[in-house]
Structures are given as C-alpha cells and as structure tokens.
Design goal:
Chain A has 291 residues and is an all-alpha fold. Helices cover 73% and strands 2% of the residues of chain A. In chain B, the strands form two sheets. Chain B has a six-stranded mixed beta sheet, sandwiched between helices. In chain B, strands 2-1-4-5 form a four-stranded antiparallel beta sheet, covered by helices on one side. Chain B is globular, with a radius of gyration of 17 Å. In chain B, α3 runs parallel beside α6. Chain B has a single domain, classed as P-loop containing nucleotide triphosphate hydrolases (Rossmann fold, 3-Layer(aba) Sandwich). The chains are: A mainly alpha (291), B alpha/beta (240). The structure holds adenosine-5'-diphosphate and magnesium ion.
C-alpha cells in the first residue's frame, strides 16, 4: 500500500521534473517578452533527437549530450533572430503565432532528418532499478530529478547573482526603466530565448532514455509545461517548478489509482479548472502595488 | 574637435509621432554645459514625450538631437546611456520586486563594477534612507523614497546629462521641497540637467533657462527669472 504510493510518487517526481523544466522555459521567455513560446516543446524534442542521432552515429554519450544541448540553444537563438526579432514591435499575439509556425517548421525539419520513428537514448548509468522496499526507481529517474534540481539552482544563481541575469529580470519587471538604465533589451530577449532553449535541451536529453523521442514528442511535453507554468502562475519561477511537480504527481496518481488511459487528460482538465477558478495560478502576480 | 561653448544637448526641430498623433512639433532647445534648464507646460503638452525621445525610448519622426556635438537622433537607448544621458522617468519606474541596492546597481549597468561601487557610496551619502532600506524590495518604499531611489539610480550612471521628469509629482509639500533642494544641490555640483515640471514656479525659480511647451511646441523661452516675470507665463502657468 505504502510502497505503491511511494512508487507513484517516484514516477510523478520524474515526469514532474521535466514538466518543471518545460514550465521554466515558458516562464523565462514570457517574462522577458510577454510571449507564450509554443516552440518550447521543440527545444526539448531537439535535445533528445540530436543526442539520439549522435550516439547512434557512435559519438560518446557525454559529448553527444553536450552537443545536443548546444544545438537546442542555437535553435533558440535562431528562433529569436530569424522569427521574433524581425517582427519588430509586433503585437504579442502575432509573436505567439510566429512561435506556433516555428514549432511546426522545426518538427518538419526533424521529421526529414530523423525520420518518423521513436528512438531511445541509452540510460546514462545503466537501467538497474534502485529498490526502496518494494518500490523501485530507475537510475535515469534520479538523473532527471537531480538535473532538474541542479538547473533550478543554476537559474536561481543566474537571476539572483549575475549582472546579466539581473538585467533580464529588470527588463521583465520594467522594460522602460531597463532601457533607461542602458540595458540592451533586444539583447536580453535573445538571451532569454537561448537560456530557455538550453533548459529545454537539457530536459530533452535527460528524459530521452525514459520517454523515448521522436519528431513529435515536443507537442505533448510542451503543452504540459505550459499547463504547469499556468498552474504555478505564469511568470513565476518558483511557480513553474511547483506547477511542474504537481502536474507530474497528479498524472502519476491518476495513472496509478484510476487508469493510465486518463493520464494525458490530467493537464487538460487541470488547465480548464485553473482558468475558471484561479486564473493567476498559485504564485501569480497579485494586483501590483504600484504607488 | 567640438567647441567648449557649444551646448551639451542641442535639439533642432524635433518631431515625434504616436501613430498618427503628432506629440512634438518642431521643438528646438539647448541645454548648455553645467546649466539647469527647466521645461514647463500643462498636462499633455509633450514634456514626457520630449524626454522619451531624447533618451531614445521613443523614435523621432523628424529633426535632430545632438549630444556633445554628435548626432544621436537614431542611436538606440542603451547607447545613449553609455554616452552619458540618464533619466529619472515620470512615475519613478522602479524594478519593484528587486531590492533597493539591485535597483541602484542596475543604474550603473553601463559602467564597471568598481565605478558602481564608488557611485553607490555617493548616492547613499545623498539619500541615507536608501542605505537603511537597501535590502528591501523597491516596490515597498514610500512614494518619496521611491523618488529618491529613482534619482539615485539615474545618478549611478554618473551622467553628463540628467533628465528629470516631474520628480515632485504626487509628493507631499515637504518632500517636494526636499527633492527640489536635491536638484539645486546637483546643479551646484555642476551636473547638467533638463528638468521637466508642472510646478512651473518652483522649476523656473531654480533654473538658469526655461522653456514653455504648449501642445508640442516651445512657445516661450528665456532666463529662468525672466520667465517668472513674463506676463504670459504668469497668467497661464503661475496662476497670477
Ligand atoms: N503612448 C502614447 N500613445 C498615444 N498618444 C500619446 C502617448 N503618450 C502620450 N501621448 C499623447 O501625446 C501628447 C503629449 O503627452 P506627454 O508627452 O505625456 O505630455 P506631458 O508629459 O507634457 O503631460 C498628449 O496629447 C498625449 O495624449
Ligand atoms: Mg508627463
């Protein structure tokens, strides 16, 4: 009984870590531009796909991982430079539609290069389950949870301690003031796309051994990341993490106690409930206390 | 080589549009080095628009802005800050959730860490209350403290030209006096300033030069004291 619950908890935490990373990606771009980047899932997919292709071609796993994450970052940069920046001062809605187009385009390219099949990355450190009583945890799950936690810490450091991180935050809080203190806000936008693509790439790489990867894996994980970000309150970093974990745990509970057939319905039911009952999410901005 | 007597900031027939609405109509003005120039005018006259255009956060649709002899009309805002133009914007514009100290250091974003460290000591000496509250989120400060923070943040850039947009707005009379004495202090120490105010009397009394802006045009200009005595200014802006 208890070990069954523990098993669901492990499984929820594992997928929750990925949803949290996806949600963080949404949050970073949303904060710096107001744009909901529907290509966020594609960053995750690209990370997984590139890592699989490289290892299949004989590239050692650590190198393949590094290159895959870098490629995801480059995709983020290209998205900003080639699609978002040329749109200039377009409305946010226009930019969101651009990201949807970019998402379809990226899927198309990957479909051509990678094929339509599903492939898995080898687990980083074997696949011998670690036992906790009668509950078990795959080593790759630990990689996913640990990497998720590490990324969160690194981002906390970046936004809390570095000059560039603070400039990104400042731009999110007040774009006009950011311009007036000499922050190049266009540069900040590029930084936030690259950062969120890197986070996505990492998420894609660490999850690829468990979730498998194909040209269309980004759609679902992107949607779930969006739901997680909304649940946490769009724009809140802590909210993204909590929202991701809650979503992962709820899915695991529904899959375990009801039926795994309903698992993917959880985010959709959840988003409807959020929009109806707490559109600001858990950590969303209260009405601002502007004087 | 640029002449020493040439104004630090020179604006020539500057036009700015918001879509089809024209907010500035061929505004010309000059801010000589080391002077305090006041720009007064009613609500909606275009004062904020002028400062936004000087800082480059609003595009000019015509005319020219020259700073220290160089044409900066098409320069992006961050490059203008680098050249030494800082602004205390209307409505203070804090980075609300960030600490007072973060807000200040962001003011020195275009400068080195060491320059920021020495600038912040000066700002703290000027506004000791900011030092007391340095760890507090800027959004939790009182209106007067936020105004000091906004001024302090602009000073962190150690600007060659300081633009101030209604720094006294919404403050209690005692705080207004405090802000104005800060401006006078800065002027005495040689800071070149363009001060926008609705409080025409206070602004013109401390200014070397003044301009009156009316529906996007500079309609009157002259020495600060002379403007105070000008019949048109008295009637329209000083309520006399
Ligand atoms: N963002 C904007 N969009 C359209 N019109 C604007 C905008 N900002 C200001 N205006 C208009 O431009 C004119 C000048 O405004 P502003 O520069 O704010 O005046 P002031 O600072 O002197 O009160 C006003 O008629 C105002 O309605
Ligand atoms: Mg104004």
């Amino acid at each position: 009984m208890l070990s069954q619950a523990l098993q669901f908890f492990f499984s929820g935490l594992t997928s929750g870590a990925i949803y949290a990373l996806a949600a963080i990606g949404f949050t970073i771009i949303y904060n710096s531009s107001g744009v909901i980047n529907f290509a966020q899932g594609e960053f995750i997919m690209v990370g997984g796909v590139v890592a699989v292709m490289l290892t299949d071609a004989g590239v050692p796993l650590p190198l393949a991982i590094a290159i895959a994450v870098a490629v995801a970052g480059i995709v983020g940069l290209l998205l900003e430079k080639l699609a978002i920046e040329p749109a200039g001062n377009a409305e946010v809605v226009t930019l969101i539609i651009i990201t949807i187009g970019a998402s379809i385009f990226i899927q198309g390219v990957v479909q051509v290069v990678f094929g339509k099949g599903q492939r898995a990355l080898p687990p980083f450190t074997g696949d011998k389950p670690i036992l906790f009583g009668s509950a078990s945890l795959l080593p790759q799950s630990l990689w996913m949870i640990g990497t998720g936690a590490l990324i969160v810490l690194m981002l906390a450091w970046f936004f809390g301690r570095t000059r560039l991180g603070k400039a990104v935050l400042a731009t999110a809080h007040n774009r006009l003031a950011a311009q007036l203190v000499g922050i190049n806000t266009r540069h900040v936008l590029a930084v936030s796309f690259v950062l969120s693509a890197l986070v996505g790439g990492v998420a894609g790489v660490v999850s690829a051994p468990i979730t498998l990867t194909s040209y269309d894996t980004g759609i679902m994980v992107g949607l779930k990341g969006f739901v997680a970000a909304t649940l946490g309150g769009l724009g809140s970093g802590a909210g993204a993490v909590v929202g991701g974990l809650i979503l992962g745990l709820m899915e695991a509970l529904v899959a375990g106690y009801v039926s795994s057939a309903y698992k993917d319905a959880v985010p959709f039911v959840l988003i409807i409930l959020i929009l109806f009952f707490m559109p600001r999410g858990l950590f969303g901005e209260r009405v601002t206390e502007r004087v | 080589m640029t002449g020493v007597n040439e104004p630090l900031l020179e604006i020539e027939r500057l036009c700015t549009h918001y879509g089809r609405i024209q907010a500035l109509r061929e505004v010309s003005l000059a801010v000589p080095r080391g002077s305090l120039v006041a720009l007064v005018g009613a609500n909606g006259a275009g004062k904020t628009t002028l400062l936004r255009t000087i800082s480059g956060v609003q595009e000019a649709s015509g005319g020219a802005i020259r700073f220290a002899g160089a044409d900066i009309t098409r320069l992006r805002s961050h490059a203008r800050v680098q050249l030494g133009i800082a602004q205390v914007p209307e409505g203070r514009q804090m980075f609300g959730p960030m600490s007072v100290e973060d807000n200040l250091f962001l003011g020195a974003y275009t400068r080195t860490r060491a320059q920021g460290e020495s600038a912040i000591e000066r700002v703290y000496a000027m506004f000791p209350v900011l030092k007391e509250r340095r760890a507090q989120p800027a959004g939790t400060l009182s209106g007067g403290q936020q105004q000091m923070l906004s001024i302090g943040r602009a000073l962190m850039a150690e600007p060659r030209l300081l633009l101030l947009d209604e720094p006294s707005m919404g403050l209690a009379p005692q705080l207004v006096a405090e802000i104005f004495s800060t401006v006078v202090e800065l002027a005495r120490s040689g800071t070149t300033m363009l001060l926008v105010e609705q409080n025409a009397y206070a602004a013109l009394s401390i200014a070397d030069f003044g301009y009156v802006l009316e529906t996007g045009r500079t309609v009157i200009s002259g020495r600060g004291r002379e403007l105070l005595a000008d019949e048109r200014v008295k009637q329209a802006y000083l309520g006399m």
